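Re: the request from the purification team.
They wanted to know what the chain is likely to look like in 3D before they choose a buffer screen. I agreed to run a prediction and write the result into the notebook, where they can find it.
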Amino acid sequence: MMTQLLRCVLTEVRDLPTYDGLNEVDTFLDAFEREVPEKKHFQALDWVMCAMPTGWWGMHKGSFDDYHKCRRMMQVRFGKPKMWLIDKYDGQIDPHTWM
């Protein structure tokens, strides 16, 4: 008896967002997650990283076993700090009190 294997290959053109480290990382991640199926996130990150994030991803992609850990680390590494020390200092008092 002969069996036949049938594969269906679908091609779908998607406009993937790219990340170069200059724009907001959370905005990029939200757009990326909308466009890429969850099981393809790690594979797709190889294609969407540009400039400095490419080097970071090349060094760290083997460190993550879970996409959510990778997402959190990208937010820590490329996100903007929520509050700067200089934002608290008004120039009127000793700056050491704010440290």
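For the purification team: The chain is about 45% helix and 0% strand.
Please add any questions underneath this entry.
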